[in-house]
Amino acid sequence: MKISGVVIETCKKRNMVTVYTSNGQFLKVPAPRFDIKTGEIIEVPQNATRCVRKTMLSMRVISAAAAVFALVMFLSIYLAFFTVPVSAYVALDFNPSLELKINKQAKVMDVRSINEDADKLLKDLNLKDANVYKAVEKIMDKAIALGYIKLDEKNLVIASVVPVGEETVVDREKLESVIANNIQQKEIDSYILVDTSNEKTRNIAAENGLSVNRYKVMEHYHEAGLNISAQEINNKNMMDIMKDNNIYLTKKQDYTTLTHQNEINPGKNAGMQNNSDMMETSGALMSNNMDRDSSKSQFNYIQRSGDMKNDTMHNGSEKNEQTMESSRTGDTDMNHDQYEDMKYPNKQMNHDMSRIKY
């Protein structure tokens, strides 16, 4: 019986060829009288063959395994020392919607544009390797220059810090301060909500094509019975959405809530002339401070420098006492509910909505 094999090596000096047979053996045989090339199939007579030593095949296998092991070790070391892990995400909305990816050195690794306005805002804006707070300043400056944050209208700026892991290099309060200072220096009338979120919420938001900020606002609207789609909330100005759906920001003690007009005492609605009146909260900046021990968000109240001369509700109790006395004696138009609110500032109003859940 003859055996066929594929020529895998030739040795002209010894006039021998190495073949790999159909039954899986490496054999050395005398070279045929005609010229033979690697890859050709020849017939190998049994009485003219001898086996290749097993040590040769074993050495080849060991060498190949060692090479693979060395490659794996190299890639592991490279990934460990040269691949920078993500430490946090920072989401910004004001109508451009974008997300910064931050490394453990608090520098920008990448920027994700989430809507068309963000595409325009980020064009020619190089933020890679910039400090996260400097990057936010650049973004705010360009947003103002392009008119996304308007000088003559009220604006809403929402930001969220999403830590990756237990610790993050992005400080929520410092981020809030950077945004607020940028707004205050230009004397722009704005509401600012800054919060922390988590990776789970961010991932769900991404699946809906939204930033974590807009997703949380959309969920709040849905809880209030408002049918707002992800596409609508992603491409429309946030203040316009609130006006169109009778949503307004209201200051209540030490936090801000988003409230639907229908949830307010109907008797008070009659006094509201338009949606812009509903948006008024003493001309203040609003900033969000997440209560980590609760699923609800608390909002701190930041007074804008331009309002320091105004006698607003946060200027002390003396003004309140004078106003209550005037109301009691009939010298003011304050109604009973307003008088009760001022007399008992810590009373929880029935028409208040629950705070935004994160």
UniProtKB/TrEMBL annotation:
The keyword Membrane applies. Residues 88-219 form the Anti-sigma factor RsgI-like middle domain. Keywords: Membrane, Transmembrane, Transmembrane helix. It comes from the Bacteria. Residues 304-358 are annotated as: Disordered. The chain crosses the membrane at residues 61-81. Residues 306-358 have a biased composition (Basic and acidic residues). This is Anti-sigma factor N-terminus. It comes from Desulfoscipio geothermicus DSM 3669. The lineage of its organism: Bacteria, Bacillati, Bacillota, Clostridia, Eubacteriales.
